[in-house]
Description:
The protein has about 425 residues and is an alpha+beta fold. It has helices at about 35-55, 55-70, 70-75, 75-80, 90-100, 110-115, 125-160, 165-175, 180-190, 200-210, 215-235, 240-245, 245-260, 265-290, 300-305, 385-395, 400-405, and strands at about 315, 320, 335-340, 345-350, 365, 370, 380-385, 415, 425-430.
Amino acid sequence: MAISLLKGARKKRKTTRRVSQKNHEPDISKASELDGPTFGRLKDSCYNYYRLEFKGADYKRWILEYCKDKPEWKKHIKAIGKNPEWRFGCTLGTSCRLLNKGFPSYHKPYADHWLELPGTMGEIKPMEHFIDKHLNELVETGSKVIEEVKIKEEKEKQLEARKPSIQERIASQSLLMMGAVDDWLDTWSENPAKFDPKGFRISKHLNDVKCTQAHARRIKEWYTDEIAEFTEVLQPPSKAQREQMPEKERDWAEQLIEAYADYDKKHIKKYLEALTLFMGACDIIIDTAKANRKPRKRIRSKEKMVAKLRFKVNDEKFQLASINPQEIIGAEELWVFNIKTRKLGRYIASSKDPLHQRREGTGLGVKGTTITGFSTDESIQKTLRKPEEKLKEFKDAGKIKIKKFLDEINAVDIKLNGRINPDTILLKTID
């Protein structure tokens, strides 16, 4: 932490709250009579006003109003209206609003003035030139939405005509399971400031609707793109990086920046946190099912060895699930985490098989509720100060990084005693 060299308490900066001016639109009634410089200032003030005082829903309404009065665009209103709200940018919306109110599309004195300004490039063109370009794009994207909906409806008709497959039934069941979750996530759009990412008991809901690992996998697929989108919004590419991108990628990045320009980043972080918690709840279901999966060939000796072992199957707070305890038998390492003490531990076998084949007499073992066959000198645990962050790093760590994971934690080494209790998560085994 940086140390301040200033003496005394820091005074809070007084801030003034901006008052909405929605009912005080700029007066453009005499715009055509203005000279070039004055017209330019009026035009700039209009764009700034509509950018600050209105949002995507308003821009969309103005654009559709503009299209209704234009025969060449009236026939495309349906396609244009199918676009999501964030595609209707403030520049396009303001341009349509101004023309709807009688603002000159082209002002000769301003066009001449523009050419005289230092550093300006190109000629001023009628506003329709800009509007038509972007309306064509909206027609294209909206037509794709209509086509996708059409294809979806056709598929649904086909599904009604035949018996659904297992995958189709899983998809259908997953959609029903997601109803309450989607309703909760939608509250973020209504009021991002009041949205609580922990305000919905996701794990309880998934258990109540009997969500299986197959449902959880399908649900995760649906939200992968959304998570990627919001992650990019929080970490957008710089202007220099965008210039190096292919045109489509650059357009997408710029559209994202414009779409979420009016949103506070801390509000976006809350929505991303909610999605992350949701995905974590799905992971618990998947990992728990994986751990409880019976081996094709049942090894009764291992089952007997771990029968009395008492451990934590899964934990919602840290979004963890234990491995199958049978994996401990013969392993060279076992990683554990106590949810109460926040201690991350690593058991290292005192006798290792050089061929890593888990031959009898090597590796770790289990007796009752205790781990056996570990090195008392090498097997240690450390207390995690920020367990959520460190456990996420642990999950993502590769073979090389995991070897030094405990060494990089700044905490006191505590020797492990081998005892496993109901607060212990069996994280991972390594051969």
